[in-house]
Amino acid sequence: MQAHVGDWIDLPVGPGHPHPRRGLIVGVNHGDGTPPYRVRWLDEERESVLFPPPDAHVHRASPAAPGRGGESRAR
Fold first, then answer.
1. What does the buried/exposed string (b/e) look like for 48-71 if buried means 16 or more CB atoms within 10 Å of the residue's CB?
2. Which among 65, 55, 56, 54 has a CA at the least distance from the CA of 25?
3. What does 31-46 look like in DSSP terms, one character per residue?
4. Tens digits of per-residue pLDDT, 19-38?
5. CA–CA separation, 38 vs 20, rounded Å?
6. Percent helix / strand / coil, the chain, rounded to 5
7. CA 25, CA 10: separation in Å to the nearest integer?
8. Residues linked to residue 24 through DSSP beta bridges, in sequence order
9. What span, in angstroms and rounded, lies between the C-alpha atoms of 66 and 33?
10. pTM for the whole thing?
11. Cα–Cα distance for residue pair 14/27, rounded to 1 Å
12. What average pLDDT does the segment 36-63 reach?
């Protein structure tokens, strides 16, 4: 799995979480984009370090439309 700052990660239902979760990747520790990732969760107002499970999915950040103020993709 590879990700970049600004990508989204989706986790399926799992132990301790009765619903799927989505988070914004705000930190990547390795230059090659491999885990762990620092994630800001949409369902909570907190960040955590994540070693994603095998059934997690990363969605690439889409380029922001002009004037929309989207997230930047730092590498």
1. eebebeeebebeebeeeeeeeeee
2. 56
3. TT-PSPEEEEESSSS-
4. 899 999 999 999 999 999 99
5. 18
6. 0, 35, 65
7. 10
8. 8, 40
9. 27
10. 0.76
11. 23
12. 92
